Each structure stands twice: as C-alpha cells, then as structure tokens.
Amino acid sequence: MIMGRPLRFAAAIVAAVMFTACQTAPVSGQATANRSALGHKESPSKPIARTGIDVEMAWGGEMRCMAAGCRLVAVEHEKSTLVLYEISGRHARLLDRQPLAYHPDSAIWIADDLVVAAVENSFSLDVFRVTQGRLQLLRQIPIGISPRDVVLVDASQGRFRLLATPYSGKDVVWVDFMLDEPESATRLERVKWCEAPWHPVRVQRAPGASAGGIVAACLDEQRVVIARSDKLLGPAVNLLTVPVTTRVIPRHTRPSPSGRWLYVAVETGGRNLRMNMDSGELQWIAAPQEVGTVSVLPLSDDLVVWGVDSRVYLQRIGEQGDVLETRWLPVDGFPTALQLIDADADGVRDLVVYNSAALPKKMGIEILYGPLWEQARPYTQ
C-alpha cells in the first residue's frame, strides 16, 4: 500500500478541518487552531514526565516487562524496519533494527523472546527471536492478505494461535504454528468478518456471548463485530451498529478492565460510544473534538483515554454516559495506539503512545509517566 487509508467522511468536513484519518503527519499548530475555533479552553500545568523514543511512523508496537526488565518492539512504517529497544528506568536504548518488506503495520510479543511483525507488502507474519539483544528472523509465514494487525490469541507448550486482520478487505486469517515443527505444519484458516476490521481485541463477555470472544471495529461498515469464543473460527457476527444515519467511522474499540463496558472511538461526528456488555445498552459520549478520535484505552470502567491529533484526552464518565470531567495531555503526533504498563517499575502504570506520524523533530513513541489523571491538564469548554 503506497498511501495510508484516507479519512472516510464528507469532503466538506475534510476541507474544513484538513484532517486525515489515515495515519498521516499532523500539521504543527493546526490542532490548536481547530480547538480555539470551537471555543475550547485549555489550562496550562506542569509538564508530565515523559521519555521520547525516536521511532519513525510507529504504526504499531508493544512493550513487554519481564524479570530482566522491559523491552519495546515497534515497526517503522515507511522505513520498513522492526526496532527493538531496552527500557531501563526512564531511559530507552536501541538494541537492534532489522529490515522488513514494504509497509509493516504492527508488531507484538508472543513470548519473552519471540516477536511477530505484520507486513503488508509480503503478505506475511514475520517471526523473530530475541537473542542477546538482537532480532533473528526465524520464519516468515505467508498468510495471503496484507495484514494491518496481529494479535496473540493463545499460547501453550510452544504452540501459538495468532489472528491477522487486513489493512483493507473482509478476510481475516487464523494462524496456528509451532517453531519446532516444519513450516509445512503451520495451519491457516481464512474467514470473512467485515470490511477493514482493525485493532481486534479479546472481550470477557458480550450480549449473546457469555464466554466473550474477539471484537474489531469495521472502518467501512459503521459497526463492530465479534467472533464468539464458542465459534471462534466461524464468521464474525454483528455486535453493534453505530446508531446514526450519517456516515461515521468506528476506528478503535477496547473493553474496560472489568469487562462491563466496550468503548468505541468514533472518528467523525463529535461523539464516541460505549456499550454495556451485559445489557447491550449503547451510550453516546461527547467527544472533546468534533473529529479525529482514533484510539481509546479505558483505565477503569468510568475513566478513559482518547487519542486525537497531537494529544490524548482523559474523561471521567457518569453512569448514563455523561462526561463528568475532561483533562488532557500533549503528545508528539497522531496517537494511533495506546498501551498501559508500568514502564519504570515504580508501581504506577504509565501510558505508551504510538504515534503513526509525528510532528517535525518530535518522537514516534512516547512514555508518559503516571499517575496520569492527577498530572493531566484541566480542560473546559
């Protein structure tokens, strides 16, 4: 794919805000100007402690903390590389960088010493072993689609089950393999879900699926689907449809820690969404900006982080979906993915921000050190 995915809303809105939903670089000062035009007021406060990591166009990655410390793996989308960093205290050190085929989109850990990268142009999942701080390619698994995301579904006694979802198209691929078996023993199962099912995630439960399953937001179909745990390899079924007649884009979805709520980042329309995973009730949540919510990470049932161009917003949500309070933190670019982890081992969870495009002279990955809510800046409208 040469170009990123374009923003899917009316041309008039595009002209008004000059914003793209694909993971393209934000324009310095543009986001602030948009918020000022909308009448938003933001209060200054002491900057939060952070570590910037110079990864270019970090479309995806993951930090993993082990007995020996924390390490971070990420892809550089345009440079077509996989990078490995050591995180010690509040410092990051580059350990290795390895080439990939054109346009890698995401990377995850599947064990303390194993990493998988999803690569568009090679239609593959590339498996690496980390040995003495170096990335060693073990296997390239051809899957027949250009993968946007890869997630670990199960790992047991050296056997791994992965799910790869496409950059575009309706087919997802289930991958079962063991490294000590020949490559010919790898099993692939191709199933139709929906158009562009991005950022899949496991949920503990859902209406009609008491055992939960795996959900994904369908960028081009205005809905969220679920592959139920009891029918995991079957076609995904509809979990929710965004209840509006105008064109909106459900971009990213994540469950709250208890599993009670499923939060949905809706890229257009000025509102986000959550679903009660017991009753099926849908609640609208007022977004801090009219457009541009691209990622979501619930910190608790009623405290959630939303990613927008050049910042993250933290909102406390009432029982009926009303916004009780909003705060914000600046980030260096377009926060396409968010991760909560105790990166500096101080007992407080930190926010890792993966910027798929960063402002000039800014960082592609940032670690914002907690506590997050207490250090976020007050925000009023």
Please state the structural category.
mainly beta
**Biggest sheet: strands side by side, in what order?**
1-30-26-25-24-23
Rg, nearest Å: 20 Å
The CATH architecture can be named as: 7 Propeller
State the fourth-level CATH superfamily.
Answer: YVTN repeat-like/Quinoprotein amine dehydrogenase
Approximate helicity band:
under 10%
Instruction: Tell me the domain tally.
Output: 1
Q: Any overview of this molecule?
A:
The protein is mainly beta. The protein has one domain: 7 Propeller (Methylamine Dehydrogenase, Chain H), CATH 2.130.10.10. It is built from three helices and 30 strands. The strands form seven sheets. Strands 1-30-26-25-24-23 form a six-stranded antiparallel sheet. It has a four-stranded antiparallel sheet with strand order 2-29-28-27, with no helix packed on it. Strands 3-4-5-6 form a four-stranded antiparallel sheet, with no helix packed on it. It is globular and about 55 Å long.
Secondary structure: elements and pairs:
Elements: H1 11-17, H2 30-37, E1 41-42, E2 50-53, E3 60-66, E4 69-76, E5 81-88, E6 91-99, E7 104-111, E8 114-119, E9 124-131, E10 134-142, E11 147-156, E12 159-166, E13 171-178, E14 187-192, E15 197-203, E16 213-218, E17 223-228, E18 237-241, E19 250-255, E20 261-266, E21 271-276, E22 282-286, E23 295-298, E24 303-308, E25 311-317, E26 323-330, E27 333-341, E28 350-358, E29 365-368, H3 372-375, E30 377-380
Antiparallel strand pairs: 1-30, 2-29, 3-4, 4-5, 5-6, 7-8, 8-9, 9-10, 11-12, 12-13, 13-14, 15-16, 16-17, 17-18, 19-20, 20-21, 21-22, 23-24, 24-25, 25-26, 26-30, 27-28, 28-29
